[in-house]
Amino acid sequence: MAGCNDEGFTMEDSVDDIDSRKIIVRLLEESTTRETIQSYFSSFGEITDVDLKVDETGKSRGFCFITFQDGSVIDKLVEEQHFLDDKDVVVARAIPYKDRTKTNKLFVGGLPESLTEQEITEFFDQFGPIEKIETVIDQDTQRRKHFCFIVFATTEAVEKAVNGKNPPRSVVHKIGKFRLECRKKFPEGHPIQKKFKEMRKQQMEIYPGPGLDTFGYSYYGYSNYGYPTFQPAYPFGYGGPLRPSSQRGAFGYRPY
């Protein structure tokens, strides 16, 4: 007989299999109990686990994970509207563990004005099919800002482009003489993105160097996507002239 853990899963169950049978329920009332959740959702199918998230004081954090015995019930369940304790709650399929650190969007910083979209496409196409390239125009100068986002057809392409690294870690690629900083870009509400933004904010509070972060890395005027607007250290891309040392970040480190 296969052994079982405390949650009732056999040791033969894989993480992927469990994730495929799991939903997340958000916007729960603070007073909603595990028993209430179990009672309501068991009408959709047999439940093997209810994981209600609480803080250090035992207070509900307003969301939970529910694992069903049969994952086929989830497709219909997530399409319906649900009420718990007279409140409308949000139900969605839980993101599989293996996919939580994956995205099909790549941030590319350090773009010089001379580098064309075609050249960018031709270089990054080696990692996988590209759906589109998103650039941002500076409203004051009407010029392209020194960064862009590349949306690939698959998450595997981004994994290749950054060697599987997650923010704040990044990878540098060279197109000709220009060095481009590349890292994964997640939606604003994603835990990794939120943690990354908070880290950047803390760095700027400690080392408020003009235009650069703690280690002299340029933000590329990344204001519209959650970061302060600054002048890049290399106004014409990494291959161009460097700004005076007085205008560089903490410790005067030059990018890369």
Structural class: alpha+beta
Biggest sheet, spatial arrangement of strands: 2-3-1-5-4
Biggest beta sheet attributes: 5 strands, antiparallel
Task: Give the percentage of residues in beta strands.
Answer: 25-35%
The shape is elongated
Q: Portion of residues in helices?
A: 10-25%
How are the elements arranged and paired?
Blueprint: H1 15-19, E1 22-26, H2 34-41, E2 47-54, E3 60-68, H3 74-77, E4 82-84, E5 87-93, E6 105-109, H4 117-124, E7 130-137, E8 144-152, H5 155-161, E9 171-175, E10 178-184, H6 191-206
Give the key terms.
26% strand; single chain; five-stranded antiparallel sheet; disordered C terminus; 256 residues; alpha+beta
Report what the structure shows.
This protein has 256 residues and is α+β, with helices and mostly antiparallel strands. 19% of the residues lie in helices and 26% in strands. The chain contains 6 helices and 10 strands; from the N terminus they run αβαββαβββαββαββα. It has helices at residues 15-19, 34-41, 74-77, 117-124, 155-161, 191-206; strands spanning 22-26, 47-54, 60-68, 82-84, 87-93, 105-109, 130-137, 144-152, 171-175, 178-184. The strands form 2 sheets. Strands 2-3-1-5-4 form a 5-stranded antiparallel β-sheet.
